[in-house]
Amino acid sequence: MILVGKLTDTQKTDLEGQLVAPDWYFYPVQDGNTPPNWVISQEEMNGSIYPQNAWVKTLPLIEWVEPIIIV
Predict the structure, then answer these.
(1) How far is CA 14 from CA 40, 65, 67, 71, in A?
(2) Using CA of residue 20, residue 28, residue 45, residue 58, what is the dihedral sign?
(3) Which domain covers residue 8, as residue numbers?
(4) How many C-beta neighbours within 10 Å does residue 38 have?
(5) 46: in domain
(6) What are 15-63's pLDDT values in tens digits?
(7) Which of 32, 45, 69, 71 has the maximal Cβ count within 10 Å?
(8) For residue 14, is it within any domain?
(9) H-state helical runs in the chain
């Protein structure tokens, strides 16, 4: 089971363009839940070194549900 940090829509917007660490940006993605959740990896949560984004370390963890891609 893979756990990821769940974001609100506002938190997702706040992280866009923000650095986790030098040369490493946050990359929020949507999972396959209905409705989909915005999430970031635990690696991003734990790797965050900048004080303005320290809050990501306390995000609630949820199980990753892979999205179904229809082509």
Answers:
(1) 13, 23, 23, 31
(2) positive
(3) 1-29
(4) 19
(5) no
(6) 999 999 999 999 999 999 999 999 999 999 999 999 999 999 999 999 9
(7) 45
(8) yes
(9) 9-15, 42-47
